[in-house]
Specification:
Helices cover about 60% and strands about 0% of the residues. The protein contains 3 helices and no strands.
């Protein structure tokens, strides 16, 4: 699971959806971890000789792929908003 940095209050005033998107990313991370714990074969080489997976595992694999797509879309949306409001996305870094 990755570290999630909360946006500052000024950014949330300017871009309130950033808070909801942050919660969405946190939920995706938690669900991703839960699915990988429930279905450890998801992290095994697909070419390994294993019996066919159950339907829930196949669906979990599809969900994980959609989660990755959604994370990319959220990152692109956030970058577009930063560009639109003239915000440097690196200004929140602590160093």
């Amino acid at each position: 699971m990755r570290f999630i940095q909360f946006p500052d209050l000024d950014l949330l005033r300017d871009v309130p959806e950033r808070g909801a998107l942050l919660l969405l990313l946190a939920a995706l991370d938690l669900t991703d971890s839960s699915l990988r714990i429930e279905h450890p074969r998801l992290d095994i080489d697909p070419d390994a000789l294993l019996p066919p997976p159950p339907p829930t595992e196949l669906l979990a694999e599809l969900l994980l792929a959609r989660f990755a797509e959604l994370r990319t879309l959220v990152a692109r949306y956030n970058a577009a908003v930063d560009d639109a409001i003239g915000r440097d996305p690196h200004q929140d870094l602590p160093f």
